[in-house]
Amino acid sequence: MRNWYSLGVSSSPTPPPGPIVVTGANGQLGRTLLARLAMSGHSSVRALVRSERARDTVCALGLAPAPQIRVVDYTSPREMGAAIAGATAVIHLVGIIKEWPGARYVEAHEQTCHALAVAASRSGVERIVYLSILGSTPDSENDCLSSKGRAETLLLDGRVATTVIRVPMVLGGNDPASASLRRSAQASKLRLIAGGRTLQQPIDARDVIRAILAACTAAPGRDLALDAGGPECLSHRNLVLRAARLWQNEPRIASIPIGPTRFAVGILDRVLRNPPITRAMFEILQHDDRVDPDILCRSLDLELIPLDQTLSDHVGPASVEMAAHHNRDRATEPGSDARDHQGDQNAQ
Predict the structure, then answer these.
(1) What is the CATH number of the domain that holds 121?
(2) Total domain count, the chain
(3) Strand-by-strand arrangement of the 20-23 sheet
(4) How far apart are alpha carbons 156 and 161 in whole angstroms?
(5) Which pLDDT tens digit goes with each residue over 22-38?
């Protein structure tokens, strides 16, 4: 499998020697993590998914050593207990930023974390690593972020040592965030909400994978919640212009007023059963991301990939062939659809 780990990244933490369980394994980060574990020769990986279609997505990766793939109900403590029995670490990637009929925040976040906490406490798991969203707190006014915050609490208050990693925009090349930024970078003109003044701190997907593995193997304390961010914080406008320079382009940027846009999104959210964007999604995308990345780096002994390298690898011209290859692979996967990618929580 060709993957983004072939693009010259600094050394990665060694995965834990015991069995590793990855939930949401068919999502963008899940597939990248499975590829990283296969590259390291780890032969005891269990990939948990929630449907046969998702199983096919993981099978199509053609990894060697191949993970054991299990279809489970993430909200069932009994099924989760059987799936994680004997594992050293569980990496929990399940989550959504958009609700739709049949997928609600309480089910994707709180109920799955409750089931995992109960199952892990009975199964001898040593550590849980949970990927969350930057800005998540139980008292957030945003439905998604408050749900994520409550889910974090369920794990952090449980019996098994837990590390929560909250991430901002994640750039990995073959993901919606990278594709959107790549399109903007090549446009002759585009319109950004509030002129693109929202602060972004994008992090490389390879750094997220390294952080996850470090959290599995290091001993950062019994329970730890870390805010992750890339090495630079800049406005969305400046991020687009920086990416555009890789294409020798300088798009003309016009501003879309945020107030009327927020109002229109609210109307769509109320009148449509499955709107293209919800109020919760909109507010997450407009959330200012500004964190001190040194805290994450010190806690997990990481060195982040510079933003210029991330943009060159995942957004610039060099990324196009890899993205095209990925899309060809995805086109051959049977039955793939958005509902089978519940692990894709960070397409910002």
Answers:
(1) 3.40.50.720
(2) 1
(3) 68-71, 45-49, 20-23, 89-92, 127-133, 161-167, 223-227
(4) 7
(5) 999 999 999 999 999 99
